Amino acid sequence: MNFEFKVENPKSIAKDWSHLGVVGSGDMEVLMEKQDLDGAAKVKVVTPVVGFDKVWNMVLEKFVQESSLGDVYLEINDNNATPIVVSLRLRQALAEANKCEVGGVN
Predict the structure, then answer these.
(1) What DSSP element (H or E) covers 83?
(2) Which entry of 3, 9, 63, 64 is 20 to 30 Å from 87 by CA?
(3) Phi and psi (nearest 5°) for 12?
(4) Residue 11 carries which DSSP code?
(5) Which residues contact 41 (CB under 8 A, 6 or more apart)?
(6) Which own/partner contact pairs does 96-100 have at CB distance under 8 Å and 24+ positions apart?
(7) How confident is the model at residue 101 (pLDDT cuts 50, 70, 90)?
């Protein structure tokens, strides 16, 4: 599934790319990459679960709106994560992507 969202005054991530999570039962991994997407946030979701496109759209749209995320490409590799786990992982991934590295220590 692919999604695209736009917000006013989009903010990209600090790092060029970031990775968080694992593809395990009930969990997922999130890869974030800073890209010039004309302010959009694009998301690719790979999941074995079918029929939940609207739920993914709602969860992802809420995350992008609340974080004002833009010019970022996200790839989500899901293994049956629930919507609350998806929301948690997205917030964790964004925090990791915005960590400043000083002298090699976060």
Answers:
(1) helix 83-97
(2) 9
(3) -85, -175
(4) B
(5) 4, 5, 6, 7, 10, 64, 69, 70, 71, 72, 73, 74
(6) 96/18, 96/19, 96/20, 97/13, 97/14, 97/15, 97/17, 97/18, 97/32, 97/72, 98/13, 98/14, 98/15, 99/14, 99/15, 100/14
(7) low
Residues 11-20 pLDDT 10s: 999 999 999 9
Best CA proximity match to 101, nearest among 13, 11, 2? 13
Residue 41 to residue 26: CA distance in whole angstroms: 25
pTM, entire model? 0.89
